Amino acid sequence: MDKILEIKGLTVKKFHHKIIDDLSFTLYKGETLAVVGPNGAGKTTLFQAITGLTDYEGEVIWAPNLKIGYVPQRFYVDSDLPLTTEEFFKLKNAKNSEIEDALNSVGLLQRVGHIQSPNKHILKNLLGELSGGELQRVIIAWALIGNPDVLLFDEPTSGVDVVGEETIYETLNKLKEKTGMTIVLISHELEIVRKYTSIVLCLNKEKVCYGPPQEVFTKKTLDELFGRGASIYHHEHHH
Hints:
- The protein has 239 residues and is α/β, with parallel strands linked by helices.
- 31% of the residues lie in helices and 26% in strands.
- It has helices at 43-50, 85-90, 96-105, 132-144, 162-179, 190-196, 213-216, 219-226, and strands at 3-14, 17-28, 32-36, 57-62, 68-71, 150-154, 182-186, 199-204, 206-211.
- Mean pLDDT is 86; it is low at 113-118 and 233-239.
- Belongs to the ABC transporter superfamily.
- This is ABC transporter domain-containing protein.
């Protein structure tokens, strides 16, 4: 298997406090890695370290010549922002065919008519007019322009309802199967993580567990990560 990312002895300190302490793991091509842990566990800091946005000690070794797409945790858009979805994509110098492919990948291409139709297509909407789920999928589509080898998602379904959440994870899963891309995501949704990811990194400043979700999501690990009585939340029980 091809190594995509190797982390060796990663330590991040802020104001003399260790946010991440001596973390090591290896990520392989085609895996979907979920980083889980309580608030303040260092999950977002890990993303900042592996993308070079914060100082660290240790080694972060990416495979050469990778294209990396990144979707931030929160993407705030002012409702008055005079920018359409189409103009947003054009900021990335995307061709129409690339925009169509990306929107198709996230299930938005047919959202009201078609690009050539006079009806108001999602591309003609202002970003501020989109629902939370639509905006999140547009951001994912934007990250897909240029066919990245790796996609990084910080809470990909933050602010999205349960149905939209499943749709986004289904989308990511299909993309991975179709393109062989590697996905790294931060999530609090343990049930979704169990369903859609191949590897889980349990992080609480240091590595608490690493492996397939069905192996690492034990009562002992969840208690250690989130406190006693933590369990995997089943959406289907609450319909």
